[in-house]
Amino acid sequence: KMEEFLNLTQLKTSLKEAILLDYYTAGFWWAKEMNFSLIQLSGFMDLLNFALENLSDKHMTLGDNLKELGRAMSGTGETDSEERDDLNLFSIEQAKAIIDYLVISLFKHYKTYEYLFHSRREEHVISNE
After folding, report:
1. Of 76, 8, 84, nearest in space to 39 by CA
2. 129 part of a folded domain
3. What is the arithmetic mean of pLDDT over 78-83?
4. Which site from 13, 68, 85, 122 is most exposed, i.e. has the minimal number of CB atoms within 10 Å?
5. What total of structural domains would you count in the chain?
6. CA-wise closest residue to 19 among 84, 106, 89
7. For 31-73, what is each residue's pLDDT tens digit?
8. What span, in angstroms and rounded, lies between the C-alpha atoms of 45 and 103?
9. What is the model's pTM?
10. Is residue 70 part of a domain?
């Protein structure tokens, strides 16, 4: 279902698409394990997307992305989704857990994600076998 939602069409041959599917799927299941409500789950997925788009589309440095994430979570910044009061969306403990999750899942591996999105590399053809 996540593959369909993200419109990943070359999952079997694209390392980039496979990594994106893993990133969003792992985030989704983490949020489910945190027992987030449907609205909180949506807000969390927006934050995952926001941080990843800052890196991939806006070429933000790690420091700038962390600042933007802080603004988005404090309600002073906006994600690309509908504007809402993120201060009331998550408790302080949940917000801390989200930050910890983003540090572990994205920010600790920032250079790797930068390489994935911004380096030129040859495409190798791999057979289905």
Report:
1. 84
2. no
3. 47
4. 122
5. 1
6. 106
7. 999 999 999 999 999 999 999 999 988 989 999 999 998 888 8
8. 15
9. 0.76
10. yes
